[in-house]
Design a protein that fits this description.
Blueprint lengths: L1 E4 L2 E9 L3 E5 L10 H7 L4 E5 L17 H15 L5 E6 H13 L5 E7 L8 H8 L1 H5 L3 H13 L8 H8 L4 H13 L4 H4 L12 E6 L8 H9 L4 E5 L6 H4 L1 H12 L1
Parallel strand pairs: 3-4, 3-5, 5-6, 6-7, 7-8
Antiparallel strand pairs: 1-2, 2-4
Helix pairs in contact: 2-3
């Protein structure tokens, strides 16, 4: 299903029965990364998945604003469209900043918030990320085979245990072709730490149950951020997952599903 929101076509789906749980993905992923875990939880919850504008099955128009400022506002609108007054929210990577901005700046209300290896604290962005950010137009012009090789190598670096062929295809394919290649570099070019700097001082204001989950081997967002975030958010719980890197959904799916099921119950 799709909604038209602020000039963006936003793809979403829901399934299951029970209290609502909204899953937010990060970059350069899509809701497909959450699908197996959401499916496992759908027996006791109504799960909502969506692709941020510029990602997955949502719109990828040239010149589109896909900044974190836009994503936070769209999440707040989505919750209204779905009629969800106070859902549980589970967020990964950029989805963490998106969910935090929706709550702190747009008044979105949550029953609880699970933050999984999230972008939330400065500094963030790898050397590769900064290189592309400063030279996006050059990277957009790469021959497609070189672009595919670059994206594949980049994504492989987010897993500690290695990716299956199917998982790698699911993560890489949205970024290929005339639509996907420029979209991949567009979202990096529009990344800006100021969107987390704007809300970071307000984390001590958060007054809802928060649980933080982090892979101990995360090289994209090191585990020290988990401890810092837990200290900033009053009452936040913390689970560390040994052997998992940034793609914790693929490195430790059973462990992550168990943690989230326990939290949501």
């Amino acid at each position: 299903m799709e909604y038209e929101i602020e000039g963006h076509r936003v793809w979403w789906t829901s399934t299951g029965d029970g209290p609502p749980v909204v899953f937010c993905h990060g970059t350069p992923w899509s809701s497909g990364l959450w699908e197996p875990i959401a499916s496992a939880l759908s027996g006791e919850h109504t799960v909502f998945l969506w692709d941020m504008p510029g990602y997955g099955r949502s719109s990828m128009e040239d010149g589109a604003d896909v900044t974190l400022a836009t994503q936070g506002g769209i999440l707040a609108v989505l919750l209204e469209r779905w009629g969800l007054e106070c859902p549980d929210v589970v967020a990964h990577d950029y989805g963490g900043a998106t969910a935090l901005r929706a709550h702190l700046l747009h008044g979105a209300r949550y029953r609880s918030l699970a933050l999984v290896d999230v972008v939330a604290l400065a500094p963030w962005g790898s050397e590769f990320f900064r290189l592309v950010h400063d030279n996006a137009s050059v990277f957009e012009s790469l021959p497609p085979p070189l672009h595919e090789a670059l994206v594949t190598a980049y994504i492989r670096g987010a897993s500690a245990r290695g990716l299956s062929t199917d998982a790698e295809r699911m993560l890489v394919e949205p970024w290929l072709g005339d639509r996907g290649q420029p979209a991949f570099y567009r979202q990096i070019a529009q990344a800006d730490q100021r969107f987390t700097d704007e809300i970071e001082p307000r984390y001590p204001e958060i007054d809802l149950p928060v649980h933080i989950v982090w892979g101990t081997e995360d090289t994209w967002i090191p585990v020290d951020r988990a401890h810092r975030l837990a200290e900033l958010i009053p009452g936040a719980g913390l689970d560390l997952v040994p052997g998992a890197s940034h793609l914790i959904q693929l490195d430790a799916p059973e462990r992550l599903t168990a943690i989230l099921a326990r939290w949501l119950s």
